[in-house]
Write a structure and sequence with these properties.
helicase activity; alpha/beta; ATP-binding; 34% helix; P-loop_NTPase; 16 helices; Rossmann fold; hydrolase; 3 domains; 461 residues; globular; single chain; 15% strand; DEAD/DEAH box helicase
């Protein structure tokens, strides 16, 4: 079975000539109506792999979308990826007359409610916003014929599983379901067994395989020296368009601020950014006015920008498979690229897990006063324990647990805030963090800061 000639015409206009491996394997299976579990690295053409046969089937069936509903639903973990998928489907199906809408958070509900009220053939959505619309009686899922989860691993990693399960209760059991993912954690297998019926499995690259044209290296550096090393790399190594990964949203903002202080133009993109700010950051990244983009993993999904020469991992990921996905942001469409990881003492366990996953040792160098780790080295030693302050020292002390009657204590009075000593505790306000804190333990008759305890608290009184 071949694709609709109108789709082939649109592909020719887009300059597409040869299908990628994931497309060549997946499209015939989807056209047959089978469920599909597809595993492929990012940048291999997954959107066309599910989008082209989806458009073909919807065009052939010529159904009418229900009001407030859709015929096909595509779930995405991020706004950027949702917008990218919708744009691609509109381009591939420009001659078909099908309607495509996208809904995601961070923007107003008005336009999204209006689009759903008329009904759409294909809805691309993030799980949270879609559930919000359903809760407002502005959306329905009971006419869905095809369900697609793109980047399913990231939707699970980012905590979308409860929202997905809730949405599934409203979707007909008789449907075609597809999973597409860059990695294959255990949770995907478990969910696939629950949702997919006799699925075909297509795997273009093993989960542990990194892109062949990506040159990898790791720089061992003290955590405090990462900022300096990052600035040196960006200044001295002829780097072009660069994607920097941060573990947290606040970390991404901090890196951008530090780079600005170092005279390097950069923007951050993460879940706390407003949609217009994210779009401006992506536009500046694409046109080169701010060639450094600092992103969290969830925001990086959907960043499909040609010419990314370098991926720098300021923070190594907690999940080793995420490393594979990150470096797949470069060396796309046959180009080459470089991936650099900054590894502190605290990151060495993560680095070993990554090297175990990809079955290779990443070439390493050392900077900023670090000593290169030996193979199989132990984790960084714990900090030496600090001596306990002498009696009378006015540093804050830990509050000891209250001891019941019969062990030198007095029970807490719940009418007085649960504090021992009743009137004394009520009269004296809680100590500020920069003032001496009295340790209310009266086993020896005095407070540990040297001041005498009230007579009624002394042992035997």
């Amino acid at each position: 079975m071949s694709l609709d000639t109108r789709i082939l015409q649109a592909l020719a206009e887009e300059g597409y000539t040869t299908p990628t491996p994931i497309q060549a394997q997946a499209i015939p299976i989807v056209l047959e109506g089978r469920d599909l579990l597809g595993i492929a690295q990012t940048g291999t053409g997954k959107t066309a792999a599910f989008g082209l046969p989806l458009l073909h089937r919807l065009a052939q069936e010529k159904g009418r979308p229900p009001r407030f509903g859709c015929r096909a639903l595509i779930l995405s973990p991020t706004r950027e990826l949702a917008s990218q998928i919708a744009d691609s489907l509109k381009a591939y199906g420009r001659h078909l007359g099908l309607t495509v809408a996208v809904v995601f958070g961070g923007v107003g509900f008005g336009a999204q409610r209006t689009a759903l009220a008329r009904g759409v053939d294909i809805l691309v959505a993030t799980p949270g916003r879609l559930q919000d619309l359903i809760d407002q009686n502005a959306g329905r899922l009971d006419h869905i014929q095809t369900l697609i989860l793109d980047e399913a691993d990231q939707m699970l990693d980012k905590g979308f599983l409860p929202a997905i399960r809730r949405l599934l209760k409203s979707i007909p059991a008789q449907r075609q379901t597809m999973f597409f993912s860059a990695t294959m954690p255990t949770e995907i297998n478990r969910l696939a067994s629950e949702m997919l019926k006799d699925p075909a499995r297509v795997s273009v690259a093993p989960v542990a395989t990194t892109a062949e044209k990506v040159a990898q290296r790791v720089i061992h550096v003290a955590a405090a020296g990462k900022r300096q090393v990052l600035a040196e790399i960006l200044r001295t190594e002829g780097i072009g368009r660069t994607l920097v990964f941060s573990r947290t949203k606040h970390g991404a903002d901090r890196i951008v601020k530090q780079l600005d202080q170092d005279g390097i133009s950069a923007n951050a993109i993460h879940g706390n950014k407003a949609q217009n700010a994210r779009e401006r950051a992506l536009a500046a990244f694409r046109d080169g006015s701010a060639p450094v983009l600092v992103a969290t993993d969830i925001a990086a999904r959907g960043i499909d920008v040609d010419g990314v020469t370098h991926v720098i991992q300021f923070d190594l990921p907690e999940v080793p498979e995420t490393y594979v996905h990150r470096i797949g942001r470069t060396a796309r469409a046959g180009a080459s690229g470089e991936a650099i990881a900054l590894c502190s003492h605290e990151d060495r366990d993560k680095l070993r897990a990554i090297e175990k996953l990809i079955r290779q040792q990443i070439p390493a160098e050392t900077r900023a006063g670090m000593t290169a780790p030996a193979a199989g080295d132990a984790p960084a030693p714990a900090r030496a324990s600090q001596p306990k302050p002498p009696r009378g020292d006015h540093r804050p002390q830990r509050q000891p647990q209250h001891r019941p009657n019969g062990h030198g204590g007095k029970p807490a009075d719940p009418k007085r805030g649960g504090q021992p000593g009743g009137n004394e505790a009520r009269r004296r306000p809680a100590a500020a963090s920069d003032e001496p804190r009295r340790d209310r333990s009266w086993r020896e008759g005095d407070f540990r800061d040297g001041s005498p305890a009230p007579a009624f608290l002394r042992r035997g009184k």
